[in-house]
Design brief:
Helices cover 56% and strands 8% of the residues. By secondary structure, it is α/β, with parallel strands linked by helices. A seven-stranded mixed sheet has the order 3-2-1-4-5-6-7, with helices on both faces. The longest helix has 34 residues, at 312-345. The structure holds NADP nicotinamide-adenine-dinucleotide phosphate (NAP).
Length: 462
């Protein structure tokens, strides 16, 4: 008896993924660092086709050839250790799938090392959290075609469905393409959460709404073009009570992170792609963590608060428009990073496919992806050039400015919504202020400048 696949790492994601895979008719050999957890898990699901091996060697032996092994452990040392342990005992043509949130460059190093032994490594971004892993995640695989072919059937069977019922999985490209796309997905996710948090703060502080009243507004948005998974679950978070108290009131305002937002921002900086909403979201997590300093400074400077100037219903209409416009700007920033990376690393990314596989299962799934998918299938590059974005931004830009203006007036920090607006404004400026920067650079450092009336490089005695 052999199992169809092996899976290592029975944590939150590994357990759900194992159950999802087994429910599609595959048999699985399981392994976990804390070995007691293997039997516990197998005993919990006696009807599933799981095998609990006696040893790591038994685990490797129990998988049908060529072997297919899924790693669901933290990126970094745990993944490195497992690859080191597996490499000498696997055979040519065996394939490993790393489903953790690895850095794309590290994935590419392992791919090279393993290919020397004829072992294929698929670097796979998986989004959807615990629930998605169980019921159907969005899956972003990257790596050699041989590795993709080994896992294509199982990944297609366990993935979520897009708006037309197709599986939310597609080979992203070679090398670390899968982990790269997942990284940018997470960067967009950071900005989406930050923009919703900014909307929450405005409604709470400006209009003194209760969490239930804010939930009613988010619920209404969920039914329109702002429909998205994150808008939906905002309602659950806003309505959650614990012992009669609002849970949100009890949660410390310190946001943790596992690094993918930082990596996306580092990539944006490295590639020279402006991404203020994503970077802003990462910086806001930084502010959230300086709790003591914030508390000391609060009160030291008076906040300039005024009474709201609009009715609540007028304000929420403007806010919806500002959020929709920010969502557009945010996705455009993510795709701009992907375009630049694809150009540099020749991954062979298909942007239309990315907007398709993000339609189901993943954390940033949202109604807007339908229009984006259509635009990218028509080979449009920058979203701002698309007809749907043009129509929406012309409609929303006045409200966008009004919301940023209101936040400034009421001392509400807003790096994502205002970052999105600045991104849009800077993107559409025929003439920017960089002539002034160039003048300064040449004045202090003789860095030279180009001219609009002559070809060449110039330096002036200022
Ligand atoms: N949670 C999510 O929403 C999510 C979504 C997408 C991707 N991911 C990625 O999926 C991977 C797994 O995440 P998770 O949430 O399932 O983590 P988790 O619940 O913390 O589980 C981690 C698993 O890895 C094992 N492990 C930890 N350190 C190890 C080591 N040094 N050597 C061998 N095994 C080790 C643990 O074994 P023990 O039982 O012995 O501790 C456990 O089985 C991560 O790369 C994560 O970034 C997570």
């Amino acid at each position: 008896m052999t199992s169809n696949l092996g899976l290592i790492g029975l944590g939150t994601m590994g357990k759900s993924l194992a159950r999802n895979i087994a429910s599609r008719g595959f048999s699985l050999s399981l392994w976990n660092r804390t070995t007691e957890k293997i039997n516990e898990f197998v005993d919990e699901f006696p009807d599933e086709n799981f095998y609990a091996p006696q040893s790591f060697e038994d685990f490797v032996e129990s998988i049908e050839r060529p072997r297919r092994i899924i790693l669901m452990v933290p990126a970094g040392d745990p993944t490195a250790d497992l690859i080191k342990k597996l490499a000498p005992i696997l055979d040519k043509d065996d394939a490993i799938m790393d489903g953790g949130n690895a850095i794309y460059k590290v994935t590419e190093i392992y791919q090279k090392q393993l290919e020397e032994k004829g072992i294929h490594l698929l670097g796979v971004g998986i989004s959807g959290g615990e629930e998605g892993a169980l019921k159907g995640p969005s899956i972003m695989p990257g790596g050699p075609v041989e590795a993709w072919e080994e896992f294509e059937e199982v990944l297609t069977k366990i993935a979520a469905e897009d708006f037309s019922g197709k599986a939310c999985v597609s080979h992203m490209g070679k090398g670390g393409a899968g982990h790269y796309v997942k990284m940018v997905h997470n960067g967009i996710e950071y900005a989406e959460m930050q923009m919703l948090a900014e909307a929450y703060q405005m409604l709470k502080e400006l209009y003194k709404l209760s969490h239930n009243e804010i939930a009613d507004i988010f619920e209404k948005w969920s039914e329109g073009r702002m429909a998205s998974y994150l808008t939906d679950i905002s309602v659950d978070v806003l309505r959650k009570k614990e012992d009669g108290k609002e849970l949100l009131d009890l949660i410390l305002d310190k946001a943790k992170n596992k690094g993918t937002g930082v990596w996306t921002t580092q990539e944006a900086l490295r590639l020279g792609v402006p991404s203020p909403t994503i970077a802003g979201a990462v910086f806001m997590r930084g502010f959230s963590n300086s709790l003591e300093e914030r508390k000391k400074l609060d009160g030291l400077y008076p906040r300039l608060e005024q009474s709201p100037e609009m009715t609540l219903s007028e304000f929420t209409e403007h806010l919806e428009k500002a959020l929709f416009a920010t969502r557009l700007a945010n996705f455009e920033q993510g795709f701009a990073i992907l375009r630049a990376a694809d150009k540099e690393m020749h991954y062979g990314l298909n942007f239309s496919e990315i907007t398709r596989i993000w339609q189901g299962g993943c954390i940033i799934r949202s109604a807007i992806l339908k229009d984006m998918n259509l635009a990218f299938s028509q080979k449009v590059q920058n979203l701002y050039f698309t007809e749907f974005a043009h129509t929406a931004l012309v409609e929303c830009q006045k409200s966008w400015k009004l919301i940023v203006n209101t936040a400034v007036k009421h001392s509400i920090p807003m790096l994502s919504i205002s970052g999105g607006l600045s991104h849009f404004e800077a993107s559409r400026r025929g003439r920017s202020s960089a002539n002034f920067i160039q003048g300064l650079r040449d004045r202090f450092g003789s860095h030279t400048y180009e001219r609009i009336d002559q070809e060449g490089s110039f330096h002036s005695e200022w």
